[in-house]
Design brief:
By secondary structure, this protein is of the alpha+beta class. Helices cover 45% and strands 16% of the residues. It has a single domain, classed as Potassium Channel Kv1.1, Chain A (2-Layer Sandwich), CATH 3.30.710.
């Protein structure tokens, strides 16, 4: 937030030039445009560099979803690990190696990233919509599947949104399912 002055030439004369550093302020317009643009790119499969392979149950069917590595890695602990981004690199505590800047690591050497646990198609669509738009739109009956996916994928903000949705729209018919899920995933918040 300071300024520095330097001598420079302007129209043939010496003029003091001051460079002023303006503190970063969030621009909702820019954030909204970025999120909308990323969502549009995914929906049209433009510049997508990874395909997620997801089984709806342990034995199938296999669903595929196009996405962007950088968006997945920025949004999910699970995807960071799958794509080989260390926590230290992600937190800026360690510079990435030259290879990690350009090549995928770990067991993911192709554009296909298998997800190692079942996720329903509706839950996966909701997760991707949330990752790319920060919007949670789901049938209340699907929220338990979405919160389970959020926990397993390490998307804490989505987990918190689902828990808030469950708490605000509590319906007796889902009580046993939610209680079981809470115990399985150790979600004391529920």
């Amino acid at each position: 937030m300071g300024s520095s002055a330097s001598k420079g030439r302007h129209s043939g004369t010496n003029v003091d030039q001051k460079i002023v550093s303006i503190p970063h302020q969030h621009s909702n317009e820019h954030i909204n445009a970025l999120v909308k643009g990323l969502s549009t790119l995914r929906k049209t499969s433009t510049l997508c560099d990874v395909t997620l392979s997801v089984n709806e149950t342990e034995k199938g069917p296999l669903n595929k979803y196009n996405a962007h590595r950088c968006v997945l890695a920025a949004s999910s602990v699970y995807f960071r690990e799958k794509l080989g981004v260390s926590a230290a690199e992600f937190d800026g505590e360690q510079p990435p190696t030259p290879e990690s800047k350009t090549t995928p690591r770990n067991d993911v050497t192709t554009d296909d990233v298998p997800i190692d646990f079942p996720i329903t198609h509706k839950a996966m669509e909701t997760v991707l919509q949330y990752i790319y738009s920060a919007v949670l739109e789901s049938d209340p009956r699907d929220i338990p599947n979405v919160v389970e996916a959020a926990v397993k994928l390490g998307i804490d903000s989505l987990k918190r949104r689902c828990i808030a949705e469950i708490q605000s729209g509590f319906q007796l018919e889902y009580f046993q399912r939610i209680l079981k899920l809470s115990e399985q995933l150790d979600l004391s918040e529920l």
